[in-house]
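note to self: dont lose this again. the chain is below, predicted strucutre after it. 579 aa total, dont forget to put it in the shared folder this time
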Amino acid sequence: MNQPTPAIVAQSAVRRLPRIALLLLCAAYLLPGLVGRGPWKSADITSFGYMAELARNTEGISRWFDPLLLGLRPETPALIPYWIGAWAIKIAPSWLHPDLAVRIVFALLLWGTFTATWYAVYYLARTSRAQPVAFAFGGEARPTDYARAIADGGLLALIACLGLAQLGHETTPALAQLYFASHLFYGVAALPYRRLGPVIALMVGTIGMTLSGGPTVGLALAVGSALFMAYERRTAKAEANTTADESPGYSKDALATMIAVALVAAALATGLGLLQWKIQLPGHHPSSTSVLSDVRSQAKLLVWFTWPVWPLALWTLWRWRRLLTARHVALPFWFALVPLAATWTTDYSDRSLLLALPALATLAAFALPTFRRSVAALIDWFNVLFFSGLAVLGWIYWVAMQTGVPPKPAASVARLVPGFVPEFSAIPFVLALAASIAWCWLVRWRTGRHRAALWKTLVLPAGGTALCWMLLMTLWLPSIDYARSYVPQVRAVAERVGQPSCIAELALSRAHIAALQHHGRFNLQPLLLGTNCPWLLVSPDTIERLHLIIPLEKWRFNGTLRRPSSATDDLLLYQKIAP
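---
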């Protein structure tokens, strides 16, 4: 027997969020950070390095299935993300910088994630068990209007996630996996209502996850979805007898399609050797001090990375606890549970957790129709204080960086980015000022007593997150780029060596190799493969055994080259002694 829904929503509460406002919010979140910077450390520049190598590839199609960076294979067996980046570089006009071309394409992937998430929430909210309580004398929200309002709330919740900000603006396989996972989520949610679009989304999502470095997660999501389809088909008859207006269910063809797509993805993963055992339980990592410390660090990551959706998602599971097997609760719960499990059992914690954000945002959206007015007001005031405080601090520290006043914030910035010389730029300043004014208007709008829209509770978290990202990518972009880029270090190398015919390298990280090739245009050659280069760059990790690898009497130590904001990215430079 169906349980009563906890959602109580009137038609007046489901008015549509103006599309222009939603589009502007998405644009304000997507566009900042596209220009004015280079690839960041270390996954961002590493991924770009593989893309650039593929774009220069002259070895035929076989190299596209085995990308290399100076002979090194990527740590994550991802293919499609590198293909996307390489194609973007190849088709970009000559005046467009290669890394900017890649960022534009990956920004479109994030836009596609937003779109897929909105439609997934919309179709889940269309189901009869997700609908609000019917009033005795009418006036309850109409199904499509209610679904649209919930979908707006789901997209706002996704934008509000703190963990999406940085990883969602990098050009890494993690963002491609997010795109494909969200499309798989949409395909499963929309399949009872549509055919061609969801089927394409299922194929793109499952196969894309397989070829983007997440075959295990993708297959787990696909298999779990197929099992849920089978379960819902089995219980559909009993529910139909007790429900007057049952939403469309999964057909036999839909279930067969899901199974077929999962089998194709499994065959691809097996045939290409993409399935790798990467389970790393807490406490078993070489750098771990104890199981408890690992659990504590993972818990901290989970709390801040998924803020503010995780409290709302937990509230949804509690308030909808009598309907946990309903499609709008069970599907997002599974799509969040699998990435959470990967987060706790692999070394790619934050990038695995990224895949859970669309599902967690969906669960958070279904908390909206269960809130009391007092709870919504408490959330609003917390967000007003939290994001307004962050914005004020951002402006204060920026003024201190530019003028030296107040002195303590200025000293703090100088310690974080030693050697950085700030310069005033009018365009970023105007954009940051406009964003701050828009935030003040949004706060004034939200605190108006006449605002009764269902999605209103998530407007401030999404707007506040977009504001902070805008301030970071306008006022603070030069200093952040200086801190997270390898450009200062590569420039230091160039000042020492000039433009030699080649530079030998020993045990350099993939990020350093990509940065030296991209920013310095150096011809790097692995020392261990035999080379006659006049200069040698060495990782400090090899210093204790360096005398066993090279004859030190033939090389003169020329200095340590440090990335200004990090002492862990040193490079040791040696010059060959002329015979």
